[in-house]
Amino acid sequence: xxxxxxxxxxxxxxxxxxxxxxxxxxxxxxxxxxxxxxxxxxxxxxxxxxxxxxxxxxxxxxxxxxxxxxxxxxxxxxxxxxxxxxxxxxxxxxxxxxxxxxxxxxxxxxxxxxxxxxxxxxxxxxxxxxxxxxxxxxxxxxxxxxxxxxxxxxxxxxxxxxxxxxxxxxxxxxxxxxxxxxxxxxxxxxxxxxxxxxxxxxxxxxxxxxxxxxxxxxxxxxxxxxxxxxxxxxxxxxxxxxxxxxxxxxxxxxxxxxxxxxxxxxxxxxxxxxxxxxxxxxxxxxxxxxxxxxxxxxxxxxxxxxxxxxxxxxxxxxxxxxxxxxxxxxxxxxxxxxxxxxxxxxxxxxxxxxxxxxxxxxxxxxxxxxxxxxxxxxxxxxxxxxxxxxxxxxxxxxxxxxxxxxxxxxxxxxxxxxxxxxxxxx
Length: 426
Ligand SMILES: [Zn+2]
Fold this sequence. Notes:
This protein has 426 residues and is of the alpha/beta class. The protein is 30% helix and 27% strand. The strands form six sheets. The chain has an eight-stranded mixed beta sheet with strand order 6-5-4-1-8-10-11-13. Strands 15-16-17-19 form a four-stranded mixed beta sheet, covered by helices on one side. The chain has a two-stranded antiparallel ribbon with strand order 2-7. The protein is globular.
């Protein structure tokens, strides 16, 4: 009799342990990456600008998910763009997550140090290689700590329209996507049971309220967005940009025809987007046992732009960290597809125009579709062949694009990828 009770207890224990091993887990961690002293900041191609002050801190923020043997890290860096060869350096320092399951995106703040290393005609750059070395380790630290913080969680996901004066299209006022995707993980055990562990906001916008013109180093509207979400929920906030190219920007317009380009405006927009994201996620049903699926694939883009090829070839940052060397007539990059609960995420290695965003979202296999822009690479603007070199308005974004077919190649590869992949579970 005694042995039967013991074996029954052992069986229950085994089932409980097994359930725990299969439960959905998440962990979050962040690191400040504000440089110790002021160094030049970059808001686009060309020479970076020396700031005269700073406001707010720059961060790397990592959110790791685990289900069974699958682990995925979503990482955001407060920077204009984070090239793959920098991300790969951090990926090597991470234990316990397959490198291709580590998604590293840039928030696209226009007030952070240059990570491209835009070279002038002499090959000189405003990029600070010591600073970038430090960021590489800080990024890996944040991911490793997020892994160490993994705990059983419930999931909430939702997509809804963010209302109010947040973004608009500078080229054509109403041509932007107002949808905001939100992923929230909530502790399902422990002393913080029921409390959010992390909240992810996915929205298309240029964090260039201050821009380089203000000569102020900082996270732009992302800083106040993080602060607001963290003070309201107690969990970490993370922001992933979306299809914000040509030219979905922060709505800083004033009634007198001027623009508000100061920190107060960053606070207004960051807080409003945070409040909208929390309003959108609040009524979402709790997913107690969500699925997790991750896949990646490599795609190639021809490089037709002389200016971008020059950056790839001669940037001191690329020369230091890049491991492949060729003639740069084409570049390879990675895109990821993640199913998390009822949501589906697809990454974009640059700044896709909003029409591309609408099209790809429509083809995704979930009514909760998330697009992570500027993720794994930041190859400039991505336009369709019809838009490329079209309107005079598009001169700048065509010039800072890899080439005519970039947008179409992305769309085609993305849709193939979506169709080859399973649908998110209901
Ligand atoms: Zn941009």
